[in-house]
Amino acid sequence: MIYMDTVIKLVLGLGALLAVTRLLGKKEMGQFTPFDFIYALILGALLEESLYDEKISIWQMLFGVAVWAMLIYIVEVLVQKNDSIRKLLKGNSVRLMKDGELDFKKMKKNHIEMEQLRTMLRQQGVFSLQEIRDLYLETSGSISIKKFSYVEPPTAKMLKMEVEDEDPTILLVDEGRVKDDMLEFIGKSKEWLQEQLDKEGYPDPDSILYAEWSEANGFFVKTYY
Asked: pLDDT tens digits, residue range 117-149?
């Protein structure tokens, strides 16, 4: 019976984590604020205590998770509707650099070291502060940058060139499996796909690691070998 309770708690705990993730919205881990991290941390603690403490029943665990999920939902609604609450709980973006001038006081206030800042810049492909015009520290702890115009690559508009927009490529074969939903999305059939792969010299979809297709560029196929 103890083992069955553990299994049930684990299954329900997984469901609770998924539900809270949905409440937080479609965010990547890098977009989580410290407050979002606290949500998950406390939920994990609730589940851990109920899992290892036999005195806590499944219903008590569900009640605790439900109350916590409700609190999360209420806070998220308040944050969306009230700027003052949002600033208090999640903070604001901070401008660390303006017109190429770094604000050391704001860096110190936000506990950002110079080498730490340079590391974050390198992760965005920037290897010198000379290239940066404006730099923001976001609420998630990541940075956003705007380079000086003279280091930005020229655009088609700058060169007065007319360039047609292209649709994104569609993945039609994924690790040997034909993507029926993608074929339906572009209005094509399996027979059409097989015919096109035959023309490209790939008659066996099972040997294909991935096959991309676009209206403008056709197929790009990569096999396992």
From this structure: 999 999 999 999 999 999 999 887 889 999 998
Three-state DSSP state, 18: helix
Put the strands of the sheet holding 208-214 in their side by side order: 177-178, 170-174, 208-214, 218-223
In a domain, 25, yes or no: yes
Tokens describing residue 33: 């604020």
Sign of CA dihedral 69, 75, 81, 87: negative
My answer on whether 56 and 32 are in the same domain is: yes
Q: How far apart are CA 158 and CA 162, in angstroms?
A: 11
Residue 42 one-letter amino acid? I
Range of the domain at 210: 170-223
64 plus 98 within the same structural domain:
no
- Amino acid identity, position 53: D
**Reduced to 3 states, what is the DSSP secondary structure of residue 27?**
coil
For the CA atoms of the chain, what is the radius of gyration? 26
Paired strand residues for 147: 132
User: Is residue 158, in this structure, part of any structural domain at all?
Assistant: no
Please tell me which of 36-45, 54-63, 84-93, 201-210 the model is most confident about, judged by mean pLDDT: 201-210
First to last CA, the chain: 51
